[in-house]
Amino acid sequence: MKRVNGITLLCFCITAGVLSLHFLGHEAFAAEKSSSWRPTYDLILRWINFGIIVFVLNKYAKAPLMNFLRGQKEKLAKEIKKLDDKKENVAANIKETQKVIDVSEVRFAELKERIVKQGQRKKQEIIESAHQQSKMMLKNARRRIGSQFDQAKSAFRAELIDTAIELAMQRLPQEIIDEDHDKFLDQYLASKLSD
């Protein structure tokens, strides 16, 4: 392929040089003082040279030049096909990613809704549990207060009774006389006999 490219480049340079000399430099090759046939002769030789160049290029440079151009065309077609394939792959990846994002957004919304519902349910459970605990604590506190009140009442009664007995023990011996003592004894015996 490099050889074909080199030959093509060489042929192109030669053709460009000959054509530039042919079209631009004809005055340099012609004699300054020529006869009337010389311009016609130069023109005919120019056309002959041009035909020879066209023939040589057509005969030897046409195939390499066409092969070079076809190779470039095929190379560019392959590049374009690769780029189109990449573009299609990227577009397919983008579509898949978009689908995944859409599905993820739907799942995220469902998950968020489920979490919010669970949170509300848990909140309600915590509130109900707190109400139950507060009722239980109030009931226990009332029971303890009642128990402590009953204990305080019992302690107060016992202390009151002890104080009353102590007071009675101090005052009764001074107040009771023999007659009262006999009367209490008779009552006691009467209650025992009736039983």
Estimated radius of gyration: 65 Å
Head-to-tail CA distance between termini: 145 Å
Would you tell me the overall average pLDDT?
A: 82
Class from secondary-structure proportions: mainly alpha
Taken from the alpha-carbon principal axes, the silhouette is rod-shaped
Unreliable parts: none
Q: Biggest sheet, open or closed, and with what strands and sense?
A: none
Strand proportion, as a percent range, falls in: under 5%
What is the percent of helical residues?
over 70%
- What is the helix/strand order? HHHH
Count of separate DSSP helical elements = 4
The counted number of beta strands is 0
Characterise this structure.
The protein has 195 residues and is mainly alpha-helical. The chain has a domain at 2-123. It has four helices and no strands. It has helices at residues 2-24, 26-29, 37-175, 178-194. The longest helix is centred in the middle third of the chain and has 139 residues, at 37-175. The protein starts with a helix and ends with a helix.
Name a few traits of the molecule.
about 200 residues, single chain
